[in-house]
Write a structure and sequence with these properties.
The chain is mainly alpha-helical. The chain has one domain: ABC transporter involved in vitamin B12 uptake, BtuC. 73% of the residues lie in helices and 1% in strands. It has 13 helices and two strands. The termini are far apart.
Length: 306
């Protein structure tokens, strides 16, 4: 029972940043914007969260710094793609490269320093329930926030007027503009939300997952998050399920090595990314479902009539 509990706890910790980053990208793509800079925003959120925590001693200040950093960094992408109408794919790739470079420079003084871990929220009595208690009632605040965000985004997209506008813009920005919807403003807000979620995911990495700063500590999670959005067919609850599935695959390599199964460590390290490729291949065979759920204007530039 103790081993099962330990495995499930590590799966939750590994899955939370994937869920957060994927959820933010889902909203961005629902608005018709393809931001491939998730990796860069995550790693910038991680380094700023760690640095702010080290300076102030408060991980909550670090969380706010990570969120703000991701949102501000996403504005650079928004300005280039929405205002200057630059290519979204190229700009997103440049944003990732820029984020990896700047984060390494900012984080250099913090390499090797022990961080301040975000304390879990312990619910009295309920946290003492075997297995279920530690999993659900003794977790860090970012875990609870990720669940709340999934529920909130699902309600917002499919039950609110503003969510309907976002989906309308993603499906046909020309018609949405003709109806009087401010396409550029709403896309800016969606991009900023995606950046804030990516920054929060980065903060979770440096304050919960491994409370320290290591260069390039996002380790490709931003790319997995991008694939997870497609895997989930742009549905928030599927993002949650897919995030935990990918988190389980990611963490399985550590437990396999600990059990001494004799599997080469290189293969185990590549397993999460191999699983991502396999999932994308399987999805590509069901083109009908993919086309039905994909926002029709995804990645297409919009220039309002002058």
């Amino acid at each position: 029972m103790g081993m099962i509990e330990a495995i499930l706890l590590t799966v939750i910790t590994a899955a939370t940043p994937l869920v957060l980053a994927s959820l933010g990208e889902l909203v961005t793509e629902r608005a018709g914007v393809l931001n491939l800079g998730v990796e860069g925003m995550m790693v910038m959120g991680a380094v700023l969260a760690f640095a702010a925590t080290q300076v102030t001693g408060s991980p909550y200040v670090g969380i706010l710094a990570g969120i703000a950093c991701g949102a501000v960094f996403s504005l650079l992408f928004g300005f280039l793609t929405l205002t200057l109408v630059a290519n979204q794919v190229a700009t997103g790739l440049a944003l990732t490269i820029l984020g990896l470079g700047i984060s390494g420079q900012i984080g250099e003084p913090y390499v090797g320093q022990s961080g301040v871990k975000l304390a879990p929220i312990v619910v009295p009595l309920l946290s003492d329930i075997p297995l279920v208690g530690p999993l659900l009632f003794r977790q860090d605040p970012i875990f609870y926030l990720s669940i709340a965000l999934v529920a909130g985004v699902n309600w917002f997209l499919f039950r609110s007027r503003a969510g309907l506008k976002i989906r309308a813009i993603g499906d046909n920005h020309g018609s949405a503009h003709a109806l009087g919807i401010d396409v550029i403003r709403i896309r800016y807000l969606a991009v900023m939300f995606g950046g804030a979620c990516a920054g929060l995911a980065g903060a979770q990495l440096s304050l919960v997952y491994t409370p320290q700063w290591v260069e390039n500590m996002s380790a490709g999670r931003g790319w997995i998050a991008l694939a997870l959005v497609v895997f989930a067919s742009w549905r928030p609850w599927r993002v949650l399920a897919g995030g935990y599935l990918f988190g389980a695959v990611s963490i399985s390599q550590l437990h396999a090595q600990a059990l001494g199964l004799g599997i080469p460590s290189q293969f185990l390290s590549a397993l999460p990314y191999a699983a991502t490729v396999v999932v994308l291949i399987l999805i590509s065979h069901n083109r009908r479902t993919t086309l039905i759920n994909t926002p029709a204007c995804l990645g297409k530039a919009f220039v309002p009539d002058r």
